[in-house]
Write a structure and sequence with these properties.
alpha+beta; 5-stranded antiparallel sheet; 3-stranded antiparallel sheet; 17 helices; 10 strands; about 45% helix
């Protein structure tokens, strides 16, 4: 069903840390003056304007902004959740649940790619065309059959982009599979396949089933304040310091989620809830779409079919929501920020994604990779995130 074009989100002043509106104009002027005096940073391709990047213009590299003097890089006070103004503390990051550890994910993927499908059940995996599969090794997996192949492609590419960004542990292990009713793998469920809408030769995704997941409601500043329609107030460092440790640990994961959804242009998570505010003022107090919590408290980024391909076709519709969400975050995992900075410096976002995708997904050629235009959009969005992080760093130095 075609959705109506959304109206601009009213007064979405989403800023997480140190984003005081009164300083915005002053900061922009200071940054512009500093950039005018700074030497041109090395570029690995066309200019930002020629590439059609959001914002355009020259920008200090994130690496240079990290090269602060001893007084700027002083360790935070004991118990502080933030280091150097914009990075979650190491102590706090160490308390984030490990999620799907790389070695465990690799073991499950290896077994799932060779296991036979013992049974297929309806329900529990979203869309009616999806199935819950029990595999011969005893594990279970959601088998997703997209409305069209680009959704399965988006799921696979989003999973591997998360690996490039160092946050793949937040996504359940995912592999592609080929539907072959006459093949040995699907032989036990041949009758079920005949009664399903799946086409012979179609590519589906197998995502590891996880027990005992629970719903997640967006925390402040994206939750109750947004649902009440008020202008969202920035969260100060003092307020962060007063939050319970469990809430801070969750915010660490939310900062990665919002950055990830911006890069992939995924509109089927928090963005869809924000869109629904125009007719449901309490939607932000309800569960966030495609986001669940594991028993250990870790967030699970589920069902990323809208990412990178489908989402890139609908940028004009959903970026009025995705971009303010990104701007609402000014505290990041340092590892995530460094990866973004490196992808920006090398201009290698699509190349790194392609390399990882081809090396780790045997069926990658069945769906192909991003088009040239989509690859350019991915790099442009990486560059936009890089500039936003640099802006947050400069802003924190002033405050």
């Amino acid at each position: 069903m075609k959705r109506a074009r959304p109206s601009p989100l009213p007064a979405l002043g989403l800023l997480l840390l140190g984003a005081l509106p009164a300083l915005w104009t002053v900061l922009l002027r200071r940054e512009a003056a500093a950039e005018a005096e700074a030497p041109e940073p090395r570029d690995w391709g066309r200019s930002p304007e020629a590439r059609g990047e959001p914002g355009g213009g020259r920008q200090k590299t994130f690496r240079a902004l990290l090269a602060a003097g001893p007084e700027e890089r002083a360790e935070p006070a004991a118990g502080s959740p933030v280091e150097r103004g914009i990075f979650w503390s190491r102590e706090l990051e160490e308390q984030v649940p490990r999620g799907f550890a790389a070695e465990e994910a690799a073991a499950w993927l290896s077994a799932a790619r060779t296991a036979r499908v013992s049974s297929l059940e309806r329900g529990g995996c979203g869309r009616s065309s999806n199935r819950l599969a029990r595999l011969s090794d005893g594990s279970r997996a959601c088998v997703r059959y997209g409305i069209n192949p680009e959704q399965i492609q988006g799921e696979a590419l989003s999973y591997h982009l998360a690996g490039v960004l160092g946050m793949q542990e937040r996504l359940p292990p995912m592999a592609l599979a080929l539907v072959e009713a006459r093949g040995r793998r699907w032989e036990p469920v041949r009758e079920e396949l005949r009664g399903s809408p799946w086409a012979e030769g179609a590519v589906v995704s197998l995502t590891r089933w996880v027990d005992n997941l629970t719903a997640v409601v967006a925390p402040a500043p994206w939750g109750s304040e947004a649902s009440a329609g008020r202008r969202l107030q920035p969260l100060s460092a003092g307020e962060l310091g007063g939050l319970p440790r469990s809430q801070l640990v969750e915010l660490v994961q939310w900062s990665d989620l919002i950055l990830f959804d911006y890069l992939t242009a995924n509109f089927d998570r928090l963005v869809s809830n924000l869109f629904s505010l125009q007719w449901d003022p309490r939607v932000m107090r309800r569960a966030t779409s495609n986001l669940l919590r594991a028993p250990d408290g870790g967030l699970v980024f589920m069902d990323n079919e809208a990412g990178l391909v489908h989402g890139y076709r609908l940028l004009s519709m959903w970026d009025p929501y995705n971009e303010p969400l990104l701007r609402s975050v000014c505290v990041f995992r340092e590892g995530t920020a460094r990866r973004v900075a490196e992808l920006h410096r090398r201009r290698s976002a699509a190349a790194e994604l392609r390399r990882r995708y081809r090396a780790r997904e045997p069926l990658w050629a069945r769906l192909g990779f991003l088009s040239e235009r989509q690859a350019e959009l991915l790099q442009a969005r990486v560059d936009f995130v890089h500039r936003h992080i640099a802006h947050c760093r400069a802003q924190a130095a002033v405050l």
